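Question:
Now give any protein.
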Amino acid sequence: MTETRPCRAGPPRVVDEAEADALVRGICFKTGPPRFLGVELEWLVHDLQDPSRPVSPRLLAAAADRLRTLPLKSLITIEPGGQLEFSSRPAESLTACAEEVSADLATARPVLRSLGLSLAGYGKDPWHPPRRVLTTPRYRAMEDFHDHWGGAGRTVMTKTASVQVCVDAGHEEPGPLGFGRRWRLAHLLGAVLVAAFANSPLDGGRPTGWRSTRQACYERMDPGRTLAPAEDFDPRAAWAAYALDARIMCVRSGDEGPWEPPWGLDLRGWTRTGHPRPATDDDVAYHLTTLFPPVRPRGHLELRMIDAQPGEDGWLVPLAVTAALFDDPVAAETSYRAVKALADTAGPEPAPRNALWRNAARHGLADPELQAAAVTCFAAAREALPRLGAGPRILDAVDAFTGRYVDRGRCPADDLLDRFTGGYRAGGKAPRAGEDHATGKESPA
């Protein structure tokens, strides 16, 4: 949910409905041969010694400031609840992406340790209540808007973290690497990724009944900005209609704000009426940053459904598996056939509100249908990874994850639930921020 501002030349230009529609279509899918890969890693930040002890906003800000002085290649941002996000540069290979982000994390972790902090790989904070630490007009307006729909939006803003994998949109032409096929693949494979990497089963230190509580929150937020677009249209037309029909979260009015939510106003209505002020091309681009569906087209495809992962290198597995299943033609075709069979379970409802995605969020790979698809997809990815130049570190991580979880119908959330039922529910020690779920041993912070 990082704020981004579009690059532009000249002052903002007032746009009408047709111009806004054309602008969205031009932004959403940049087609061509898939070349680039990226990853955005959101981390919860916990006290190194006692993760159940809240970290002060002042210390979180100091940590972000210290990290920004380091010679990192990733962009560092602080999220509304104090989460830290490392956003990679577009990389031309999986190896380049993994090595660059790994180096940045290796540089950042000792600095955080010196401040008594640790990056924690949970999809949702297991202990703390929602707490917004950023006071910018954007996040004040966002919180007000989300609160209109209940508490799920505030939870997502301030208590959740993810691994967001970014892949190119693909070719204009049909085929395994065509953008239409990749768009469809992302919305079916997304449920498998939710299930395999679910890692947020606790809230307030107790089980919620969901393997991915983070994902379950999205279906309880504003459906016009968190559900997937309709699938019965061309992807560009579907996304443009989705964006224009989504409600405006805020109308910006200077850096100090307040940015008032214009209740009930969508982008289409704004461009038609010119109220509360004329909409500009800058407003359209900004509006797109306030939409949070499971797959967001930003020229490339941003896959937003994967929970943050435990351990120092846990994030490597969803990055590698997703890259292989999208960018290797053989693996892409194999995975598409495997997940296409899940369409009947998904039914007509959009993700994440359909039965397939709910099963993934609630049961993880304990769902037999999702496990069968995951076994096929992980095998296809593993076969493809050497063709993508993946080295032993990535291959070993994927093999370990597959053996520990996929082959056994488990996900990282199950380790946390095992710890809960067998340990700290009865008064044992809660896992530390840098502790690996499966082994109970501390991983490097």
